[in-house]
């Protein structure tokens, strides 16, 4: 599962959220859970509580096969189901069966004998169904239980987490036009991770169980359906309803079951003899191949890399509305949030390959081989996160892959400021706690280190062995370690114990000294040994003299070590960890000259980027001339991320240097990367908006939404007389960059006739855009003293009370603070606060005046 997009939230409504704050951020950086955006108002915790011991679930029965027959009551949001389960005792004889079945109305339970039902006695507590089987069965006997039930997910008391915002399992999507004016397609979809599928069918809802499945879905004929496996047939039931029969003959975990219903366009593709399908809303059918079209190549790449062919009979990807996470790797049918539905212009700014690769890789790591317990979740999520690096490395090159590693490291270190726990952890408070930056980002970086420790050939040979040996079985961390040991012949406890089974990371001090042909490097591990191990660390140093380089290798085992090497002369620069492999905080003092040389000599993006930041942000004593020289070089760097950083860093200097400003103008006109052009336009607007008006006017015609959005924001700062006409031409666009640029202008210009435009946008944009627009809407109402202010306050209160996304409710609640002097608003805010059911949001409200 990919965690949801991290929104770039302006927590202060008084701050002006410029369009450039949105358009300069590629989706690769938008993977942190939404909860992280409100840490400023949540009391920090030094460490996560230890929690209770969480073993894998004890299995009394083995679930062999699951047959489901389902239909729907749209008015009540009910699912009517008949589940026929084939089971046998796992080892010991059993006369009682306990199934997970949450918030059902159970109509009957029967034991099938020669296909005839014999009623069974049962007890039901709303969460589990306890069935008396009538006699003891041994593990040599299969038996069949049939349950007739109604699932009522909307009547359940549900929870959720930052990664998965709701856990009710089954979701009916209806138009909510009566409240928000937003027309949405009718859909039904499911979300099973962690243990939520038992909200819509009875099962043994645990990741160490596996079952084959078949499902008969009866729907109105206008709908298409999707489920696991292959569609065997579709059969009309009467003039308006149809039953689709889906079947998967390979066993998988119950949380990986899925079902979706809706009016989708299905774009067909293939990889070898495997059908590949993309389900999108009809409006996005022309772009489905542009969004998902790299999937067959990914399937080939991962199959080749792992030496294990994609193991399932089909692969479908479906985009649904209001999804409760970023995406989910249901076996043969991954589900994605609606943000992936973009047009060809949006794809000029970014692609969604990272999340697509993530969910696909789960079909080996998570679906084929499944973590036996949530304690071992990194065996699913760390691998899927590392797939983002692998695909980027293969498809887009070393620099783009380096950006993935950099982001993952930053994500982990941000979380590590308040939370450091074992990667594999057998103690936690709630299984949802496992879906954090440790399981995703730290785990990915740890796998990258493991790859570099054993070497490429051994790494992928070990993964091949692990998958072949454990296919269609649950696994724990020792299974992975043993696979590496069996392939390499090496004991791997030292690596797995310190990186998977301990918390924290190395905190290193590096101090080199040269004397008479000898280079001494003092390495200190300064992490707290009471909570974090003293690591065994293979280290590398790259020593440069002029054009010549030398690689030095060593391994440290102690808290303090001095490494000694023979070198011909005093090095010009020593690059520590030149491939940026090690996950560590490093204190390594370098001079401006050394940092500049490291930038110029290194062929690793992360090392170049860090050198540039150290110089520009004055972490070393550096002159303005040194800084400008390096930034001017960076403006010509081959990799767009470094150019983008340099564009933003050089903007202030360009105020005083016309030559730099002209370089920025050239970049704004012709840089091959749209996000770099967009930032250059924003920089020019800060230098002299009127002088560069022709650049902005040309940018309005750019195919990139990012560039057009920046150009609109910049154009608004000029003295152009055709602003109203120019802006009106963009009012029908729903892209976030365009919408926010317009909203910002309408607030600043106090344009009085845009109330209807804001409301229309609310019903047309995704939740990320809506967050920003609600902020601007409040400012608009306050700035224009709109005669519709009372109506606007009522609309904000509806969002604060009723929107399904908690961060939208939060921003609407905060927006009401603009009107605390308006009679009744203070009381309204108190009512909203008192009625809020989300505990994390209630806690945030306590800190908001």
Question: Any chance you could write out the topology, listing elements then pairs?
Answer:
Elements: H1 20-23, E1 52-53, E2 61-73, E3 78-89, E4 94-100, E5 104-113, E6 116-119, E7 122-124, E8 128-137, E9 143-151, E10 170-173, H2 177-180, E11 187-190, E12 211-220, E13 224-227, E14 230-236, E15 241-252, E16 259-262, E17 265-271, E18 274-280, H3 288-292, H4 295-306, E19 315-319, E20 327-328, E21 333-336, H5 353-361, E22 369-371, H6 378-395, H7 398-416, E23 427-428, H8 437-454, H9 456-470, E24 473-475, H10 477-488, H11 493-499, E25 507-515, E26 518-525, E27 537-545, E28 548-556, E29 560-566, E30 573-576, E31 585-587, H12 592-601, H13 605-616, H14 624-634, H15 640-654, H16 658-670, H17 674-688, H18 693-699, H19 705-715, H20 723-728, H21 736-748, H22 755-762, H23 767-784, H24 789-802, H25 806-815, H26 825-835, H27 839-846
Parallel strand pairs: 2-12, 18-19, 19-21, 22-24, 25-31
Antiparallel strand pairs: 1-23, 2-3, 3-9, 4-8, 5-6, 5-9, 7-8, 10-11, 11-16, 12-15, 13-16, 14-15, 17-18, 20-21, 25-26, 26-29, 27-28, 27-30
Helix pairs in contact: 4-5, 5-6, 6-7, 6-8, 7-8, 8-9, 9-10, 12-13, 14-15, 15-16, 15-17, 16-17, 17-19, 18-19, 19-21, 21-23, 22-23, 23-24, 23-25, 24-25, 24-26
């Amino acid at each position: 599962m990919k965690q949801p997009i991290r929104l770039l939230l302006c927590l202060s409504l008084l701050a002006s959220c410029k369009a450039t704050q949105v358009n300069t951020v590629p989706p690769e950086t938008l993977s942190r859970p939404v909860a992280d955006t409100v840490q400023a108002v949540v009391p920090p915790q030094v460490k996560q509580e230890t929690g209770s011991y969480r073993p894998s679930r004890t299995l009394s029965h083995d679930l062999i096969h699951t047959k489901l027959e389902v239909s729907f009551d749209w008015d009540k949001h009910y699912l009517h189901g008949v589940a026929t389960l084939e089971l046998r005792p796992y080892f010991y004889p059993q006369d009682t069966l306990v199934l997970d079945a949450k918030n059902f109305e159970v109509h009957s339970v029967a034991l099938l004998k020669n296909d005839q039902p014999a009623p069974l006695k049962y007890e039901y507590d709303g969460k589990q169904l306890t069935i008396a089987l009538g006699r003891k069965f041994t593990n040599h006997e299969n038996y069949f239980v049939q349950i007739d039930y109604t699932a009522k997910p909307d009547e359940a008391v549900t929870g959720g987490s930052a990664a998965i915002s709701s856990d009710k399992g089954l979701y009916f999507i209806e138009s909510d036009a009566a409240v928000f004016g937003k027309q949405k397609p009718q859909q039904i979809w499911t979300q099973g991770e962690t243990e939520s599928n038992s909200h819509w069918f009875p099962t043994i809802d645990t990741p160490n169980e596996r079952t084959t499945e078949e499902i008969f879905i009866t729907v109105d004929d206008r709908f298409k359906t999707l489920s696991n496996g292959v569609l065997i047939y579709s059969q009309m039931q009467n003039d308006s309803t149809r039953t689709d029969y889906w079947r998967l003959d390979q066993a998988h975990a119950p949380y990986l079951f899925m079902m979706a219903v809706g009016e989708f366009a299905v774009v067909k593709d293939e990889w070898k003899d495997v059908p590949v399908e993309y389900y999108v809303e009809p409006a996005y059918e022309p772009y489905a191949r542009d969004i998902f079209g790299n999937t067959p190549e990914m399937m080939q790449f991962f199959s080749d890399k792992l030496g294990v062919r994609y193991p399932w009979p089909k692969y479908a990807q479906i985009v649904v509305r209001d999804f409760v996470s970023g995406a989910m790797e249901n076996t043969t049918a991954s589900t994605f949030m609606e943000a992936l539905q973009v047009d060809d212009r949006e794809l000029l700014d970014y692609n969604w390959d990272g999340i697509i690769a993530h969910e696909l890789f789960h079909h080996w790591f998570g679906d084929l081989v499944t973590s036996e317990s949530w304690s071992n979740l990194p065996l699913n999520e760390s691998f899927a996160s590392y797939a983002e690096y692998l695909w980027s490395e293969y498809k887009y090159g070393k620099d783009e892959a380096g950006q993935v590693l950099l982001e993952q490291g930053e994500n982990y270190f941000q979380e590590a400021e308040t939370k450091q726990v074992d990667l594999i952890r057998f103690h936690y408070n709630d299984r949802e706690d496992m879906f954090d930056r440790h399981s995703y980002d730290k785990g990915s970086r740890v796998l990258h280190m493991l790859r570099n420790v054993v070497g490429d050939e051994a790494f992928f040979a070990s993964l091949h062995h692990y998958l072949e040996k454990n296919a269609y079985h649950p696994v724990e961390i020792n299974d992975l370690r043993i696979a590496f040991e069996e392939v390499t012949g090496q004991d791997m406890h030292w690596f797995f114990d310190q990186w998977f089974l301990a918390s924290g990371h190395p905190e290193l001090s590096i101090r080199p000294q040269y004397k008479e042909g000898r280079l001494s490097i003092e390495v200190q591990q300064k992490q707290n040994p009471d909570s974090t191990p003293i690591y065994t660390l293979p280290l590398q140093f790259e020593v440069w003299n002029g054009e010549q380089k030398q690689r030095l290798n060593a391994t440290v085992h102690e808290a303090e070590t001095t490494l000694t090497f023979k070198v011909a002369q005093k090095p010009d620069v020593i690059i520590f960890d030149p491939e940026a492999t090690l996950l560590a905080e490093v204190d390594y003092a370098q001079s401006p000259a050394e940092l500049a040389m490291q930038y110029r000599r290194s062929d690793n993006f992360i090392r170049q980027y860090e050198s540039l930041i150290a110089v520009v942000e004055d972490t070393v004593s550096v002159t303005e001339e040194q800084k400008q020289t390096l930034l001017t070089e960076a403006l010509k760097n081959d990799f767009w991320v470094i150019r983008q950083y340099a564009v933003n860093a050089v903007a202030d200097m360009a105020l005083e240097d016309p030559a730099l400003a002209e370089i920025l103008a050239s970049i704004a006109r012709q840089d091959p990367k749209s996000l770099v052009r967009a930032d250059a336009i924003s920089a020019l607007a800060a230098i002299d908006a009127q002088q560069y008006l022709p650049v902005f006017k040309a940018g309005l015609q750019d195919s990139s939404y990012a560039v057009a959005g920046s150009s609109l924001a910049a154009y608004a700062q000029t003295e152009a007389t055709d602003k109203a006409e120019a802006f009106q031409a963009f009012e029908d666009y729903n892209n976030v960059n365009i919408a926010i640029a317009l909203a910002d202008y309408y607030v600043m210009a106090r344009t009085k006739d845009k109330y209807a435009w804001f409301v229309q946008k609310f019903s047309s944009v995704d939740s990320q855009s809506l967050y920003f627009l609600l902020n601007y809407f409040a400012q608009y109402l306050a700035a224009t003293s709109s005669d519709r202010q009372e109506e606007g306050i009522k609309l904000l209160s509806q969002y604060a009370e009723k929107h399904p996304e908690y961060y939208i409710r939060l921003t609407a609640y905060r927006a009401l603070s603009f009107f605390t002097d308006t009679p009744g608003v203070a009381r309204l805010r108190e009512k909203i606060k008192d009625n809020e059911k989300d505990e994390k949001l209630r806690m945030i409200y306590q800190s908001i005046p």
